[in-house]
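We treat protein structure as text, and this decision shapes the records that our systems exchange. We quote a single record here, exactly as it is kept in our systems:
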Amino acid sequence: MRSSLLALSLLLSSAAFAADKTPAGDVPPKDSKAEAPKDQDTIKASVQEDAQPVKRAIPLRGHTLAYTVTPGHLTIRNDDGEPTASIFYVAYTAPSAGRPRPVTFLFNGGPGSSSMWLHLGSFGPMKIDASLPEMQRPAPFRMTSNPDTLLDVSDLVFIDAPTTGLSRALGKSETKDLVGVDHDLDAFTRAIQRYLTVYGRWNSPKFIIGESYGTLRAAGLSNMLADKGVQLNGITLVSTVLDIGLLFGTYDQAYVNILPTYAAAAWYHNKVAGKPPLDSFLTDARNFARGRYAAALQLGNNLSPDERAAVAAEAARFTGLTRAYVLANNLRVDPSRFRKELLRSEGRIIGRLDARFTGSNPDQAGEAADYDPMDVSVSGAFIGLINDYLFRDLGYKTPLNYRPNNYGVFPLWDWKHQSAAGQQMTADTSADLAAAMRQNPNLKLLAVNGLFDLATPFAGAEYDIGHMALGPIERQNIRYTYYPAGHMMYIDPNSARQLKADLASFYASAM
């Protein structure tokens, strides 16, 4: 999704691009300076940086938290000093009592997603009320002060990726010059450096929070920023994917990684006999997936019929599917098929970003889920309120339209990556993160996981991080946390409360 990963299954932007036309009979004289009106979405951003600060305050745990919210644009330039992009950000800063406050840079992923999901749904001082499954409702939507804001711990800077939100190409740059694993990493590195310079924050403790594809970006940034002298204190990966191939490829390991999340979804929807405690059930699911199930998949066509039937029966017990269905899928059930099959008899599908969400899908013969109920449940509120918040509430002035998504960049995305290992890799930044952690033994890593997230399964995060080339000292700096929620676990009130506590502890350990 937006916030979340991968544009192929996420909400596509529906903005129309109208042609500029002057009606016949209204053609201005040649010497007139009048111009035909332009579509706001095609207007070039200004090379001039801007900042439009607003003073605000919220109640927080019996006190008042005063802060400044600053929407603005930073201009990033190439090594020749030529402007390449205008990067939109919204910064939240609170008064400092002596020592420099930490500063955290936050972003979503896509590729092609703005950062409105983290901005309005997670750690900022204001938060959308999008708390429960099946929360879809008509406007007006509601935004309130956030009891779980991270602003009392760190200043926050939400950054929109190039071509999303209000970020745009500048000068000679075109979209194709800004979209791709390494193009994107370069743009974010320059934007963070520029923010540190403009606001004098080079000596502040520095943190990154990335979600979904933003975790792949965060891992790459850890090494690229270090090469530029930006030493990070900590990185938080929310809904992790470091190796994109294991997420979309038909590799056996991808099915091993997602089976425990199938088990969580089946448990939630009462498709597991006896419904044992979730934690112990998922431990058993992990052990089965990484043991007997993984061994069976590796054997391929050499797996005996008896063992195939036995593994299918065990997989069915964990996933709530029938043994016949698992066998018909050659033991490898695609996530979209699982989302259709689990509640097929009820005419329902389950969410990709959060399997707790369900939607109507009465086609009993359909092969796969045709939309994500979680995505459609929250998108209207987020898109409506980001526009209302920026342009009405904060009064931000710009001729541009806010692009919540720009998934049109997906076909243009360059997936090649020059990794820290010195070789071309396809969208895998785990080696970059490992290099940064080895070279900076104080760098802390927190992996935040939703148990019902079918987009970036928690066992996939464990696999990606667990296979990084780290020694025992670096491995001690890694922590995993889990929440009974989905990809955007921060919209769930109970999970958000626990996540804030976990982050506060993590920040304390990293400073």
